[in-house]
Amino acid sequence: RRVHGGGVVWDAGIVLVHYLHRRFGPAGLRGKRVIEIGAGTGFVGLCCAMLGADVYITDLGQILDLTHRNAARNASLVA
Question: What angle do CA 23, 28, 31 make, to 5 degrees?
Fold first, then answer.
């Protein structure tokens, strides 16, 4: 089954995560709420959770299966 763009970690997401980490540091998003709309792999949302944020991740139904699997695989990295 083809996922289209939802199965890709885009360069813009990597740049955003680097920025957030530099700007706020580890646990710098603690107490913040983040919503990632059109999350695909959930990369940005998962990284925000690693920085301490409460994260809500959304996408289309057929892509959410991938997002849920990635979240489960990385749950041990989230504080």
Answer: 135
